[in-house]
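C-alpha cells please, single chain.
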Amino acid sequence: MDFWKDETDEEVEPIDSWEEEDDAEPEIGDGGDGGGFVLQNCHWGERALSLAHEVLLHFGDGMELFSFKTTPRGYIYVRLDKLAHEYGCPSMDEIESYSRQYKKRLDEVGASGEIPEDLALEVSSPGAERLLKVPDDLYRFKDMPMRVDYIQDLEARSPEKFGVFYLESIETETGRCVWRLADVKENRDPSAKGRPLSRKLKDWRLDLPYAMFKRVTLYLDY
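Here you go.
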C-alpha cells in the first residue's frame, strides 16, 4: 500500500515544474550553505534522509552530510562534506558516485510506495562559501584565514564590521574568541600601496563573545 498517499492528498508536481534552489542569503541551519537538515513538512522527508545516511555509509568515515533539504514540490538538495579536504570539497567523481547510488535507492523505495516516485535530486559540495558554526567549525579551520562579520556592542546597536582574521584562541568557559588580523589586502591601509601590516596591527587582537559574530566564512583570495 502507498502509505505516503494516505498522509496527504497532495502529490509532487511533474518534473518540468519543480523549482530551483532559492538564492536567499544563507543562515546557519538553513539546509543549504548554512548546513543542517530541513524537511519543510515533507511527510516523506525523514525516509529520504535515512536513505541519504544509508548510502553515505559506503563512503567511509571521511564523508558527512553537510546539509540536506527537501521541498514540498519533490526536490532533494544534498551537500556532502569531505573532512580531509582543505575546504571540505569532495571530488566530482565522489559527488557523481554518491548521486547515482542515492538516486537508485530513492527510485527503489519510491517503487515500493514508501516515498513519492521520481523525486528530483541535486548533490553538490558546500565549498568555501559555507557558513561556519561558532565555535564548533572554528577548530576545524583554525589554520585558515576567515572573514568575520561582527558587531562590537549589542546594546548600542553599533554598525556591523568585518575583517579577515586567523583564530588565535577559543575561551570555552567564557564563550569568547580571540582573533588576530590576517595580512591581506582587506586589512591593509589603501594608501600603504601593498605594504604588509604594521607591527601595531599585527599585535592587535579582536576579543569578542560568540553572540557578537553575525557571520563567519572561509576567506577566498580571488
